[in-house]
């Protein structure tokens, strides 16, 4: 970042005589954030320039010079040679100013029929569209890991919980598959968000459109959008796509946080259901016996920023009059931050799961210890002895209490003991008392 100061107000032509104050420059500059959209900005400019030439709005020579210059700038940025300047405010002005250094006067023609307002809205939609592709790719990779674990553990019994109390026996596969279902909805939500945002604001100009004979369909198509946005005021000021993206990320993070919480619980010696690999755990600097599930805790903790970013963006947008307002410049930071966070969370969860080992013996014995077949017993009484469910529930309660007093598992009770509670019970009852059955 250059610290050399120029008069950024010179960018606005003749009207300004004074330089902006230092603090004005600081509050106004977004380059530290929006430089991340440089490829999108250059692609948007290339499409716009090509359209201007095609429509005869600028000459082919100028267009060629602009496009060559833009490609050179892309090379400079990629090579890490480009000097981003805070006094040039944002990525758009940084690139345009460099274009002027390289090709001179024709650079000034690129901005014909365009404003930074439709430019930034276009860049940001392009960026978010691509971010969603990357998130979906990671979600699918995590889903694959979960599917493989489901296959592997299809027959491994564990207690299913309600109120975090052992409730009924289930398989580990079924438990993990629940997260697979959540992730599938998360993926569909991202896809839905992506399809809605894929409209091109270019041509909205500052807010009212532009008198030049531009071809909005051409630029939209060139940039892979479905079509241009319909209303120019909405085109420059709509950021509900950012809200939607932030919600999708927050919701995915929330699902991962639930899974993270279970991993944390399961990794305690008290549960002992899962062992995380060393790669995905940390030690304690003071307690040598500790192996901590930090990655899972951080996935759980990231929901703070994911939720915060959504609230931040919605708060910025609330009450904004049409059309563009500089408040909107606050839109990128939360979106970039949520993207980074959710990408990390998904990948960390994938890494943790694919290297973890599940202690299926501990799960089985927890299922047996927790009287989890009590509901199956009640259902048996209903189905085989035709008891009303409420009575079956009562009989079962008495049998569970008996096992509790004897400190044994349900299937360890004698038939005669159970028959004392209800004489109709036969030895077929043992079919449902063992969790494995
Ligand atoms: N950096 C600005 C943003 O992100 C670009 C648009 C500036 N437009 C304006 N009218 N000042 O919103």
Describe the structure.
The chain is mainly alpha-helical and 437 residues long. It folds into three domains: 21-109, Fumarase/aspartase (N-terminal domain) (Fumarase C, Chain B, domain 1, Orthogonal Bundle); 137-159 and 170-358, Fumarase/aspartase (Central domain) (Fumarase C, Chain A, domain 2); 373-431, Ribonucleotide Reductase Protein R1, domain 1 (Orthogonal Bundle). It is 60% helix and 5% strand. It has 17 helices and six strands. Strands 1-2 form a two-stranded antiparallel sheet. Strands 3-4 form a two-stranded parallel sheet. Strands 5-6 form a two-stranded antiparallel sheet. The protein is elongated. It starts with 21 loop residues before the first helix and ends with a helix. The model has no long low-confidence stretch (mean pLDDT 95).
Name some characteristics of this structure.
single chain; Fumarase C, Chain A, domain 2; elongated; 6 strands; binds arginine; Fumarase C, Chain B, domain 1; Ribonucleotide Reductase Protein R1, domain 1; two-stranded antiparallel ribbon; mainly alpha
What's the short story on this structure?
The chain has helices spanning 22-28, 31-34, 38-54, 60-78, 91-103, 116-152, 172-197, 216-222, 232-237, 240-266, 294-317, 332-355, 360-369, 374-385, 389-406, 415-421, 430-433, and strands at 157-162, 165-171, 199-200, 227-228, 274-275, 357-358. It is mostly helical and 437 residues long. The strands form three sheets. The protein has a two-stranded antiparallel sheet. Strands 3-4 form a two-stranded parallel sheet.
């Amino acid at each position: 970042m250059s610290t050399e100061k120029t008069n950024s107000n010179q960018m606005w032509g003749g009207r300004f005589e004074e330089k902006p104050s230092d603090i004005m420059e600081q509050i106004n500059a977004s380059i530290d954030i929006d430089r991340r959209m440089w490829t999108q900005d250059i692609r948007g400019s290339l499409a716009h320039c090509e359209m201007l030439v095609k429509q005869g709005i600028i000459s082919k020579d100028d267009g060629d010079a602009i496009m060559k210059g833009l490609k050179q700038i892309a090379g400079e940025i990629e090579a890490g040679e480009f000097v981003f300047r805070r006094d040039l405010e944002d990525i758009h002005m940084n690139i345009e100013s460099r274009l002027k250094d390289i090709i001179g006067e024709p650079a000034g023609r690129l901005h014909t029929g365009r404003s930074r307002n439709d430019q930034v809205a276009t860049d940001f939609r392009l960026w978010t569209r691509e971010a969603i592709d990357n998130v979906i790719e990671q979600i699918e990779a995590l889903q694959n890991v979960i599917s493989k674990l489901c296959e592997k553990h299809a027959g491994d019994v564990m207690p299913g919980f309600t109120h975090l109390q052992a409730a009924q026996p289930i398989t580990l596969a079924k438990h993990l598959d629940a997260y697979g279902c959540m992730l599938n909805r998360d993926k569909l939500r991202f896809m839905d968000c992506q399809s809605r945002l894929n409209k091109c604001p270019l041509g909205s100009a500052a807010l009212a459109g532009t008198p030049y004979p531009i071809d909005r369909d051409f630029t939209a198509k060139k940039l892979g959008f479905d079509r241009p946005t319909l209303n120019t005021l909405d085109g420059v000021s709509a950021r509900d796509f950012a809200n939607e993206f932030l919600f999708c990320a927050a919701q995915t993070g929330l699902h991962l946080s639930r899974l993270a919480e279970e991993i944390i619980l399961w990794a305690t010696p008290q549960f002992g259901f899962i062992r995380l690999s060393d790669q995905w755990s940390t030690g304690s600097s003071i307690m040598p016996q500790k192996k901590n599930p930090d990655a899972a805790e951080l996935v759980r903790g990231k929901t703070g920023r994911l939720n915060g970013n959504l609230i931040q963006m919605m708060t910025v947008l609330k009450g904004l009059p049409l059309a563009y307002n500089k408040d909107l410049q606050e839109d990128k930071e939360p979106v970039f931050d949520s993207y980074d966070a959710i990408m990390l969370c998904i990948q960390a969860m994938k890494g943790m799961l694919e290297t973890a080992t599940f202690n299926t013996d501990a799960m089985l014995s927890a299922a047996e210890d927790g009287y989890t077949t009590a509901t199956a017993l009640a259902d048996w009484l209903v189905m085989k002895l035709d008891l009303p469910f409420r009575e079956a529930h009562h009989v079962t309660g008495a049998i569970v209490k008996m096992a509790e007093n004897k400190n044994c598992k349900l299937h360890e009770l004698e038939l005669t003991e159970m028959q004392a509670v209800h004489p109709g019970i036969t030895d077929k009852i043992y079919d449902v008392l063992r969790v494995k059955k």
